Amino acid sequence: MDPIQQAPVENYANPKTCFFHVLFKAAALAFYILSALFFDSFVIIFVVTVLLASLDFWVVKNVSGRILVGLRWWNEINDLGESVWKFESLDQESLARMNKKDSWLFWWTLYLTAAAWVVLGIFSVIRFQADYCLVVGVCLTLSIANIVGFTKCRKDAKKQLQQFATQTITSRFSSTLQSAFSVV
């Protein structure tokens, strides 16, 4: 037996989902950064970059968020015309079993992508390229929307867990009290 036992390395549970989670983020950023070398048309750069960022937004919101972290969010307009956030998460037992590497990749790429768009926006401002600030603004807005949605969803899932735990403890305590007094 080997005297030095290594801890088992946890692999990605959903490598294809992780790949596509990163692909559209990287594609939008890479196209935006490298497009100036190949295209003179701002319209092409704007359309393709925003299309890739929109695909990233959709994949994160509807696919990778569900699979990698067990969360889903959406926004509805109620009858009064008010915006209402809706959250959905797996049950607490399933959330506890989520792959740590998948979760790590999900959250870090979500935040790093937004940070990258902020840096690119600063460069656009420094270079006095207001039109490119528009591209960055759209892409940053989509990134921040996912950050806000998933962060609120994660907080809602934790709140539901706390409420479930409180209800369970309260019901067990009351059933214990009832059984104690029914004996008397």
UniProtKB/TrEMBL annotation:
Any single GO BP term: protein secretion
Topological category with respect to the lipid bilayer: Multi-pass membrane protein
InterPro entries: TVP23-like
Keywords for the protein's UniProt record, in alphabetical order: Golgi apparatus, Membrane, Transmembrane, Transmembrane helix
GO cellular component: a single term: Golgi membrane
Stretches that traverse the bilayer: 29-59, 104-126, 132-151
Domain of life: Eukaryota
Cellular localisation: Golgi apparatus membrane; Membrane
Recorded coiled-coil stretches: none
Described purpose of this protein according to its UniProt entry: Golgi membrane protein involved in vesicular trafficking.
Family under the similarity heading: Belongs to the TVP23 family.
Protein name from the UniProt record: Golgi apparatus membrane protein TVP23
